[in-house]
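Posting this for the archive.
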Amino acid sequence: MANSKRVTRFSDPAARLLKQFIYMSASQHTTHRSHSTRSVETELIHAGAQHNTTRAVVPPIWQTSTYKAPESAEDFAELASAINPKEFYSRYGNPTNAQVQEILAKLEGAETAVLAASGMGAISAAILSVVRAGGHIVAQTSLYAGTFALLRDLLPRFGIETTFVDQTRIEAFEAALRPNTQLIYVETPSNPLMTLTDLKAVATLAKAHGITTFCDNTFATPLAQRPLEHGIDLSLHSATKYLGGHSDLTAGAACGNAHLIERIWKTTVLLGCALSSFDSWLLLRGLRTLSLRVQKASANAAQLAAYLEAHPKIARVYHPSLPSHPQHQLAREQMHGFTAMMSFEVKGETPEEQYHKAQTLIGSMKLAVNAVSLGGVESLIVHPASMWHAQYTAEQRDAVGISAGLVRFSAGIEACSDLIADFEQALSRL
């Protein structure tokens, strides 16, 4: 009986309006016209078709490391010095990469894009392309653990310092600026607490001081948020996640103006973090259904967030769709829908009790898989404090709000009623 009541609760008017807003906002953005006259959904299917010079409806996998040189020595010399050539050497690019890059550029409203072998490959190459020895970075405290470790541990070896600030306070960014600040790096919504950064405010501040800005847009995807529209210089993605969408590849992407992307492409060539032709083909395949997957997964997350917020065994839920989220209004202003990512804290009197209950919940789920990563068609659930204990000390976890009872959930595209039932049976064990 209790189970029935809890599920029925989501037929009330407030929940219907919330779900309607999710679908409406996602629909408004996906039908938004890009630089051409075609909708985003159409661009996902047809953009960059000229890069497939065969008669195959599905572009082939260019499984070759090198390409036959042009007969003319002059043409070969020109090809060897070209930026991101399609048919020279696969570390430099290939036809499938070119097609994917064009699609991503259209999605983000960017001039062009570049691919890398992973999200961290794209992030590392991008940062190393704009920050020099003796330089300074301002970054928010709440970041993906890999990015945090890069800024905290690796870059200081090259004489690059980073100041971490509260992303919710634009005055904190301003106070951290130095004469040698070369980059402001943000991530919104942030991993794992879904905290937002005011992109327009950060971009305005940076431009006033001649500073480059990067935004990790992985959680939102270009369907829900386009940082360049708010003045950010570069939008970054772990394409392993939503862009690929099937948990079967690793890839990264950077989207921005041609000059900046050229610098980043040169860095990817030198670092050797080129995306393989097969993973590029898988990424292209995943992009075809991006709008459908993101709309469904985001709607699931919003409904699950409302369900969990009302549950007596849950202390707090982090999702921008909730009116209780402290930045709910900012989310409605700068996003065209809400992320399919969410996190929540289980109730417990002590950190030890919270930890035990979080682990019990995760281990009791039948549909949601306990696995790292996110953004696939299947729902994933993970315990951030356990996953990132090597990157964050206990003090650092406390500082960014990663408690012992925090659970991160990546909503998939399953039927939401089945996901709610899965949570019901798991929560009943606490």
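The radius of gyration is 22 Å. Residues 1-14, 20-35 have pLDDT under 50 and may be disordered.
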